[in-house]
Amino acid sequence: MRRFWGLTAIISLIFILAGCGGKDGFTVFIIDNQGNPSGISEQLQTNLQQKLGEEPKVEIITSAMYDVQKILVEYAAGSHDIFILPENDMKQYGQNGSNVPLDDTFDPKKYERGVFEGSVLVEKGKGDDGSDMKKETHLYGIPLENMQMFKDVNYAPSNLFATIPLSAANIEESKKVLKALTE
Question: How much is the pLDDT for 11?
Fold first, then answer.
């Protein structure tokens, strides 16, 4: 019980701090349950920035240790534009309606492993059982093993997927950056 209240306090503090200032730049958060992505962050950031030009200003943030609570806190904070995380975590958040469908930008047939039934936000009361969420099958994640920029830095594990959270500051810009990481 004590742990629950501690986690609740931390998440509350994050929401308060997140509301204190505007977000500058574009962030990609990477966490891996089978390795440490920290070694590639600088090279990946340099390569991505060169491909995108001056805007948006990209920052790659990595977690040296895998922690389910860390993922929860990062999603709750709403400060990242792209998440790269293990498949099971990506699917869990997608089923809860936390990820953006990518069908309009990427070919679901090409990235079949990222297609699953998840929840999408709909007009209030128009979802399943009168809720705001509706179960739909979409492409929610792109496997890193299919992303050229990760292949270029020799870090494309098959267990990781890139996804865009519903809280991304600019979903269209996030899709543009995700496309740059993929091509």
Answer: 53
Q: Residue 122 burial by CB count (10 A; 0-12/13-18/19+): exposed, middle or buried?
A: middle
Which among 157, 179, 165, 150 has a CA at the least distance from the CA of 27? 165
Q: Quote the crossing angle between the two packed helices 68-77 and 2-18, to the nearest 10°.
A: 30
* Contacts of 87 by beta carbon, 8 Å cutoff, 6+ apart: 113, 141, 159, 160, 161
Closest CA to 13 of 67, 73, 94: 73
Omega within 30 of 0 (cis) for the link into 143: no
Per-residue confidence (pLDDT) for residue 126, from 0 to 100? 62
Domains of the chain: 2-15+23-182 (3.40.190.10)
Which tokens go with 140? 């929610």
Q: What is the mean pLDDT of each run of 10 residues along the chain (183 residues)?
A: 51 48 77 91 94 92 94 94 96 93 96 93 67 88 96 93 96 96 94
